[in-house]
Design a protein that fits this description.
Elements: H1 2-30, H2 33-41, H3 47-83, H4 86-92, H5 97-145, E1 158-164, E2 171-179, E3 185-199, E4 204-218, E5 224-236, H6 257-264, H7 271-305, H8 312-336, H9 342-345, H10 348-365, H11 374-386
Helix pairs in contact: 1-3, 1-5, 3-5, 3-7, 3-8, 5-7, 6-7, 7-8, 7-10, 8-10
Length: 388
């Protein structure tokens, strides 16, 4: 009978978990929908490339949505079982709360394994793959974004105009470039022909101008300088058009644990960079482990808080998740500023929630009430006042 009950409770958790995971991930994805639509409509990016971008974004979303979905699913499942008096029936059948915790622990362990796999392997690989894909899109669509006889301002500090773009050719003709990199000086570059050249290794795109001249006028319009050239390269910053893709090295969110450790051991790193790498290292294990602590906390909260209203599962889950991530953000901020070591700042929410979960689970199992029953207190006061 115990196996049947365990499977029954596990199914009660699994079904809402899948639905909530899908909904939360979709909501986070909707936060990127404006940028995605801009890539399709204004940048001419293909639907296939957009689908790849979405796939690469999913692991970073799921790293956060999996623990949240588990917490809310357990709250909803336990709330329904408690509201329908099934928890009472289980206890009358001789099952303790700790025995009912077994399917919750199994669900927590499965989500922990899934989240740690996502954190260790999927997130670094997908983040770096997304970065390279966006660079390739930028490289391929930089030329598409430049229209003939139209001033193009997609590139930071540059305004580019092309008189003619031959069909099925990889160059521009009659190019005018307004260079605003130098404060106080206005540079205008005229060129007969220009090519867009990309470097996948350094993730940069260059505009190579040929057979032209640079015209410089001082701010007071009293000095003029002209320089002729046969070839002149300009590094284009694509951050205005798409994203900041000109970083050759991986960021901390794109590194595996081994890469983070090797980067931290490199000499010459400042303390701020070391703290950033240390935070990312600890997050790769602390975020997945939150699944275990959410399971500890959700079982007693679900039983205590949902005897009358099942919908409170979302409210309680939202409050718990908000508190957890506020503590996490605050702890990471203290680590970044050097006020706390990473071991304390990153792990502090987990320690607090683990302690709270153990206390609540113990008191719920022993049927000890931590929060006084207000209605019971009011009745006693009423009786005392009436002289009973």
């Amino acid at each position: 009978m115990r196996k049947i009950i365990n499977r029954y409770i596990f199914k009660e958790i699994a079904f809402p978990f899948i639905i909530i995971l899908f909904v939360l991930t979709f909501v986070l994805l909707m936060g990127k929908i404006l940028q995605i639509m801009d890539l399709i409509i204004n940048k001419g990016v293909s639907v296939f490339s957009i689908a790849k971008i979405i796939i690469f974004l999913l692991p970073s979303f799921m790293l956060f949505t999996i623990p949240i979905a588990l917490l809310i699913a357990i709250l909803i499942a336990m709330g329904r079982l408690s509201a329908d008096n099934e928890i009472t029936a289980f206890k009358n059948a001789g099952l303790s709360l700790m025995q009912l915790y077994y399917p919750v622990a199994v669900a927590s362990l499965i989500t922990f394994v899934l989240t740690i796999f996502t954190s260790y392997f999927l997130v670094p690989q997908s983040n770096f793959a997304a970065k390279r894909l966006l660079f390739n899109i930028a490289r391929q669509n930089a030329g598409i974004g430049i229209k003939e006889k139209v001033f193009n301002a997609d590139f930071k500090d540059f305004l580019i105009y092309a008189e003619r773009i031959p069909v099925n050719k990889d160059y521009l003709e009659g190019v005018i470039v307004s260079d605003n990199r130098m404060i106080g000086e206005q540079n205008t570059i005229l060129s007969q022909k220009a090519y867009l050249i990309s470097d996948p290794d350094s993730m940069t795109v260059k505009l190579r101008l040929e057979n032209g001249s640079i015209h410089t006028v001082s701010a007071d319009l009293k000095r003029y300088r002209k320089i002729d050239f046969k070839s002149y390269d300009i590094n284009l910053d694509l951050s205005t058009a798409l994203a900041n893709l000109d970083k050759a090295s991986k960021s901390s969110t794109e590194m595996t644990m081994t890469e983070l450790w090797e980067r931290m051991k490199k000499p010459g790193l400042d303390k701020a960079a070391v703290r950033e790498l240390a935070i990312e290292m600890h997050k790769k294990f602390s975020i997945p482990l939150s699944c275990i602590f959410f399971g500890l906390l959700a079982l007693p909260l679900g039983i205590r808080s949902h005897r009358s209203v099942k919908s409170k599962g979302f409210t309680v889950g939202f409050i718990v998740v908000s508190l957890y991530y506020l503590l996490r953000i605050g702890g990471e901020a203290l680590v970044e500023t050097g006020y706390l070591p990473p071991e304390i700042g990153v792990w502090m929410p987990n320690f607090l929630f683990a302690f709270a979960g153990i206390i609540l689970l113990y008191t719920a199992n022993k049927e000890i009430s931590i929060i006084p029953d207000i209605n019971f207190i009011r009745k006693n006061r009423y009786r005392n006042n009436r002289g009973f």
